[in-house]
Amino acid sequence: MVFDIQKSRLLVTQGLIGGEWSDSDNGSTFTVSNPANGAVLAEVANMGADETRRAIEAAEAAFPAWSAMTALQRSNILEKWFDLIMANQDELAAILTAEQGKPLFEAKGEIAYGASYVKWFAEEARRVYGDIIPANQPGRRNLVIKQPVGVVAAITPWNFPSAMLARKIAPALAAGCTIVCKPATETPLSALALALLAEQAGVPAGVINVVAGARSSAIGGEMTSNPIVQKVTFTGSTPVGKLLMKQCADTVKRTSMELGGNAPIIIFDDADLDQAITGTLISKFRNSGQTCICSNRLLVQSGIYDRFIERLADEVSKFRVGNGLDEDTTHGPLVNEKAVNGVSELVESAIADGARVVMGGARGEQGACFYQPTILADAKPSMRVFKEEIFGPVAPVFKFETEDEAIAMANDTEFGLASYIFTNNLKRIWKVSEALEYGMVGVNETAISSEVIPFGGVKESGQGREGSKYGLDDYLETKYICLGGL
User: Fold this and answer.
1) What is the pTM of this model?
2) Helix, strand, coil percent values for the chain (each to nearest 5)
3) CA atoms within 13 A on the CB side of 270
4) How confident is the model over 367-406, as pLDDT tens digits?
5) Which residues form the active site (predicted)?
6) 258 is catalytic
């Protein structure tokens, strides 16, 4: 039975500033709706630059006490937050599905995935080590210590509204930083619910602040221009990431950016076809194609091209598209009508340029935010679906002949986040993996993300890494101390 989120004690509609749950200064709100049916879920406080400024100042005021805590104290609070998230997994998943649209089983998986970062960084908080460097002169000692950067501003997307927030808050708090968060306008309820649980876990007032609002440029502008903020972390599109980086330049803020992707999945003739089909289904169609590491381009060697498409179409035909809150739904809607329009334009452009529709290729009958799971054969590198991030349930399949051709096709993009290859040739695994210009490579596997690995890209897909032992680096300053006269 699906939880009624209107009865949820985790349904919060106010922002969190300095430990106080607050309305917007002018009393305005914005509407959060279910993309599956348009039902209004909540009216959320519509905050702007003034509220963001106060949140930043609250984070600054909370920083000395939080950063002065022992690593063990911060770790224990994060552990309590993890426990509360998992204890409320079903309720959080229902909220997430209602506002974002993904099937309930995927939403539950996202809650656990986000919580895993809280658990991981609760442990990593106690492993922020320094160094003693051998002295270059007598009577000296060279020490290196790590200190928190200070106040962090985080801007998170709508496609993983719970996990992306946890992935940023957890390392920031573990390092001793305080944070101001701006969730996506489409999906603020998941972020506010997590903040409520963090408060219950004992996170002190002002350490986590959340300002939601439809005036994204006003909130983002305050975050990037305010000299109190020492670091901005963003997950979203490359154009917005570039703008934020430019804005941060005036105050020389540290930035970490997880931006757009154009992931290739390369399937060679010698691949295990069953394995490749399973991996493609997960990578391409999870969250209805709305993930930054989705396989955007399917590159299939000529010897198995037709057989691969036939097998893929057979599996995709089994999808059950509908409201994510319905238990039999396997794939939900896109986040809004604008997203559907964008996907539709890309498909229509590909068809006009000669792509063949194997299945789908049209808007869904379930509602305005649905698009049919689609497979396009005979796709060519000149098409927009080769160059642009689709962010929808559309699988364009491109044919290649040789290994070198596949590598060249895969690298023919300004993006470099995730990539995937399927082959049973060990020599090819090494050659292709090293040749691909991507921050992450999955070999005979597409479910590559977890809290233990460094998630991030190269080229215009961003900078910095989230998760793993490297995930604290962007929230720490390295300080050198020279002790003389010894």
Assistant:
1) 0.96
2) 40, 20, 35
3) 9
4) 999 999 999 999 999 999 999 999 999 999 999 999 999 9
5) 258
6) yes
